[in-house]
Amino acid sequence: MKNKYLILGAAALLMISSCVDLDVDVKSNYTSYPENEIAQEALATDCYFAHRARYVGFYSGYIGLMEMTGGAAVAVSFSGDYYDEGPRMRATLHKTLPQDYCVDWYSDIQGGITKCNKALMSLESGDGEISKTAAQIRAVRAFYHWMLMDAFGDTPILDHLYDDDEAVERAPRKDVTEWIVDELTTVMDKLPVELNNANYGKPTRWMAQALLAKIYLNWAVYTGDIYSYEPSQTNAKINDCIAACDDIIKSGNFNLSDDFKTKFLPNNGPQIKDFIYAVPYTASDKDGNDYGRYHTWRRGQNDGGSGAGLYNAPLTNSCAGCFMMNPDFSDLFNLPGDRRNDCIYGNDPDGIVYQYGADYEKTDIPTYYKGELVQMKKTITLVEITDANGNVIPIGPEYDHLDVGANMTGWTQGWITNKYCLNPSDYNTYGRSNSNDVPVFRYADILLMKAEAILRGGSATNGDSAKSLFNQIRSYVHAPELAADPTLQDILDERGREFFDEGWRRNDMIRFGQYENETWLIHKINPDAGNRNWRIFPIPTGVMNSNTNWKQNPGY
């Protein structure tokens, strides 16, 4: 049994409505402080998990958007199948539109902030003291502000409930960043430090420190002009990043003892020592984790008849298989012995896709579909488009459907990641839902952030060096260790190998100044893909319509 006990019961005890725009009445129904711990927990639970349904969302959520725009994933269509009016293709090509559902999770996160503000109003005790529950709610509210600020730039600082006639203004990104830091440091000592089942998936001191480390590492990105940012700019908070990392490291609460692949499986949870802050999912609750549907090859449910298919057990629900690895990103997975290579379909020397056993490990049984051996190709080749005279049109804007064809050739284009390998029984029973918890902050990230901060001029502490920190990662995944200090490019490449499908690729590529790099065919299909305006997403149309005093982000 997994983390179900964390989330059941709260909705029955207390319903807190979500708002999807900033103009609705959000006044609290509560007028007194609930002193009972059970009541406080019920009040807070909806706040802690307000982002869950849209966090993974490889179809229309947060992580999918970050991986596509960061150049790690390519969303393809199969001759119209999974085109769905093209929002995922536009994200891949750096041309997202305000009306695309890939960005409309903005309102869900905004609604989460409203839930936090309602709860905080109810928890005000009048003596000025910050309770543990209030501290946790303020920490997750700060995290939600970070999600919006990182993705959309200038964002309202919503630190209270607004009156119906009170105008809501976007605050400069720098001010939002500083407010988040102030919030986290204010509540830091009130946050729980214990790692137990009750705190899993909820803000702790270590979650707050990890978010601070992430903000400090990106300080020049967040507090300067994002459109002119260059990685050579001075970071005034680089040593603060190291200090936040050190607090987590010295706690002794986290380590890299878990096998890389094992810690992302459907039975993961509080026992994983690498997870600092994770989003828990339970398939039976159908609460948002649809990873398996989009990261299992298109016909992986069976062998074209009644056979087992990819998972050695037939899937009664179909698979989408429309998220492939960007071929350039695939090049990172070339280290001998690297356990992370085992989280990809198709990176066998011959591209053969083998069936997976009940232990989620690859067997020696090849996968067949209608008698044809399934062999994934690392490259992605689009279906040719011809003009009225039958001449093939060179790759250009006309290819924006990213059509690979609705046949065996198309379905096996590009490698596919299986980091969050699905449980066939859950997939069949609960409408394609997965039970894999998804980490937000990991100890491995803390080590690589500290290594990067040292390379960027920070002061080495506690006997650590960039090389020693880097090699801790290489050691636990059984990849070759470095004999010399890593370069910054080494750090970026290692982050790609370690954190793929965790939503960090866009963040990393911007910080390293490589977000506009030409990869695969993106720049040929969208000549404007190198425009720095695309570093920030458009404010969704619905949010703009509800806030007519706002201006759309540049370039949209």
Overview of this structure, please?
The protein is 35% helix and 6% strand. The protein is mainly alpha-helical and 556 residues long. It has a two-stranded antiparallel sheet. A two-stranded antiparallel sheet has the order 2-10. A two-stranded antiparallel ribbon has the order 4-9. The radius of gyration is 23 Å and the shape is globular.
Major sheet: arrangement of strands: 1-3
Number of helices: 21
- Overall residue-averaged pLDDT value: 92
First and last CA, distance: 46 Å
Uncertain runs are 3-31
Reported for the largest beta sheet, the result is:
2 strands, antiparallel
What shape does the CA trace take? globular
What is Rg? 23 Å
Give the strand tally: 10
Q: Hey, roughly how much beta strand do the residues contain?
A: 5-15%
Backbone structural class: mainly alpha
Tags for this entry?
556 residues, two-stranded antiparallel sheet, 10 strands, 35% helix, disordered N terminus
In short:
The protein has 21 helices and ten strands. With 556 residues, it is mainly alpha-helical. The N terminus is likely disordered.
Summarize the topology.
Layout lengths: L9 H4 L23 H12 L3 H4 L6 H8 L3 E3 L11 H6 L12 H19 L8 H21 L20 H15 L17 H13 L1 H5 L14 H14 L23 E5 L11 H4 L28 E3 L1 H4 L13 E2 L8 E3 L5 E5 L1 E2 L2 E2 L34 H4 L4 E2 L6 H6 L8 E5 H13 L10 H11 L11 H12 L5 H7 L10 H4 L15 H6 L10
Antiparallel strand pairs: 1-3, 2-10, 4-9, 5-6, 7-8
Helix pairs in contact: 2-6, 2-7, 6-7, 7-8, 8-9, 9-11, 11-16, 16-17, 16-18
